[in-house]
Amino acid sequence: MNSPWGYRGGILERFGWTYEYLLWGISWLNVRIMLDDATRSVDDEENDESGKGNSGPVIHRDLKTKEDIMNYVNGVI
After folding, report:
1. Which H/E stretch holds residue 23?
2. Between 77 and 52, whose confidence is greater?
3. pLDDT band per the 50, 70, 90 thresholds, residue 62
4. Which of 2-6, 8-12, 71-75 is least confident?
5. Do residues 18 and 12 lie in contact, with contact meaning Cβ atoms separated by under 8 Å?
6. Is 32 exposed, middle or buried (0-12, 13-18, 19+ CB in 10 A)?
7. How far apart are alpha carbons 28 and 32 in whole angstroms?
8. Which of 9, 14, 19, 54 lies 20 to 30 Å (CA to CA) from residue 72?
9. Is position 66 within any domain?
């Protein structure tokens, strides 16, 4: 977005709100929280052949046993 109006326009389009509701019906703090917590996805076209997108490589793991799952969970946390 190049201006505050373009940013507001994107918000209106995304949520289907009126401009009046954005200005007077909801607090800007709630709008920012909703935008920050919104789910996002990366299309397959945006990934290159190595599997890297905007968030890094995708690692596929075979979790076949209970021990595999426990080792994976303990390694992540």
Report:
1. none
2. 52
3. confident
4. 2-6
5. yes
6. exposed
7. 6
8. 54
9. no
